[in-house]
Amino acid sequence: MTQERLASSAHATGPLAGRVIVLGITGSIAAYKAAGLASTLTQMGAEVHVILTEAATRFVTPLTFQALTHRPVHTDLWAPDPATGVPHIELAERAEVLVVAPATAATIARLAQGLAEDFLTCVALATQAPLVVAPAMDGGMFEHPATQANLAVLRSRGALVVEPEVGHLASGLTGRGRLAAEERIIAAIRQVLGRRGPLAGVRVVVTAGGTREPIDPVRFIGNRSSGKMGYALAEAARDRGAEVTLITAPTALPAPEGVHVVQVERAREMQRAVIEACANADVLLMAAAVADYRPAEEAPQKIKKTGQELTIRLVENPDILKELPRGRLKVKAGFAAESEDLLANAARKLEAKDLDLIVANDITAPDSGFGTDTNTVTLLFRDGRQVPLPNLPKREVAERILDAVQELLQR
């Protein structure tokens, strides 16, 4: 490794900067996918140490992972190491999380039984780090009672199992057994790394997406919200250790790993879900774009063209934030998506809805607002402070909002 690369590794940046991740790879045909996982984790700043079982080396080579992680790859429990007498113990002590991906039925059984037969299982038995298991095998093997019982044992010990996906398998059959997508495994890793984070023990409710108010069985009144901001908030809160409930209107986004998701459609459905979830919550982040109006009557059948004007009478929806009892909520935060008089309108909402924090978002600004991957917002606090943020990715905006929430919780 060059001196330049050594310096780069020592000052890694990224969402997983400096985190020590041990990645165990077992003898599944999906082992090749672990190369992408190792590469992504390394690019996110993690210190990735790879362990290949003997069976895994029949599918992938140590050189591949050494090139991707810039670190030696462990394959042999009995290989001498001039730096330490017991390398598997040293690695077990340094690990912040042990990830087994892909995990075969055989390795899952060994982990459940506490066997110490090779480098990987010795590390698993010696480490105090949380365990993430991503099974990959034929569908019949995964569904077998023995495999399910072994996974149940691992879960009972605190392991996080990233369920495999349904699809075409190496056997030629279709079933549940495909290795989970890389982003799902990384989300699980971030979740377990955050278990002792600054929001550990805090219950957070996040709303997301745009509600839909039916006109008839085909049409609805809605808005342009993509849900991206709310989903980013849910994931960021999860990664800080919070117990997160995401109440979401319809979106095209996948459900975040490790988050309790409640699906709703209409504003009144969201209101009921928010009231129920907030009964035992500490923080509410109301990022959803809730329709202000709904049709007074919903046509039971599709409305046909008649050549005449169609008049739809609208009535106001409830103001969820304004009408929500504070109860045990310690932080009540909302969003103000405005097209004019941004700060003045946001300040009025902050006071009228009894909020601790409101996020003001100019939806007319470029690369900001509905459907974009970035946002330009200003944070307004109850004490009169205003904190403008530059245009940032929505995940980074979420992190800044949660910094503010943590500050409010400490008061």
What does this structure look like?
- There is one protein chain.
- The protein contains 14 helices and 21 strands.
- The chain has 411 residues and is an alpha/beta fold.
- An eight-stranded mixed beta sheet has the order 12-11-8-13-16-17-19-20, with helices on both faces. Strands 2-1-3-4-5 form a five-stranded parallel beta sheet, sandwiched between helices.
- Strand 16, helix 13 and strand 17 form a beta-alpha-beta unit.
- It is globular and about 80 Å long.
- The N terminus is likely disordered.
Short description:
The chain has 411 residues and is α/β, with parallel strands linked by helices. It contains 14 helices and 21 strands.
The residue fraction in helices comes out at 25-40%
Show unreliable segments. Answer: 1-11
Summed up, the helix count is 14
- Shape verdict: globular
Total strands:
21
Radius of gyration from the alpha-carbon trace, in angstroms: 25 Å
From the N-terminal CA to the C-terminal CA, the straight-line distance is 48 Å
Characterize the largest beta sheet: strand count, sense, and whether it forms a barrel: 8 strands, mixed
**What would you call the structural class?**
alpha/beta
Strand content: 15-25%
Average pLDDT taken over every residue: 93
Strand order of the largest sheet: 12-11-8-13-16-17-19-20
